Amino acid sequence: MNSAFFSSIVTMVETWMPMFNPETRRQLAQWKHTDSPPLKKFRVTASAEKMMVAIFWDSEGVILTHCVPKSTTVTGETYEDMLRTKFLPALREKRPKKVAAVLFHHDNAPPHRAARVHQFFDDNNFEVVPHAPYSPDLAPSNFWLFPTLKDTLHGRTFSSRSTLATAIFQWSQ
Known about the structure:
This protein is about 35% helix and about 20% strand.
């Protein structure tokens, strides 16, 4: 495989982002003397309020970050609308040379397999890269993108979906 192949791939991934994410063990680590009493740690539960975020990215970085509106079910129709009205304009603006030859990668979720989504790809001459069965070495989003994003937001509490969205957008710039 050559670098031209990899540089032409655009990946779309989704993740849930909580409004509050407790600090990680690494963030809580402290130096203490061996004679010091153990630290008291209070049990913290993750926030029940969360937001779905769709991230479109390639070898150059993030192309589009889209926060799915509250109470929206991602269906073939809503996914195709996101591709047409959000992703395609962002791709044309940020990667104009890539528009003509996109290898698009996303998982096999039912909305991604909808006929209208395949029609969108056909209409725009995108080739869909088949999604292999899950394997850690085939999921760069799980090892680079999501940990980087979530490490940035750990330990922070967001008062609203818009403040969380702002933090995510700032991270993706």
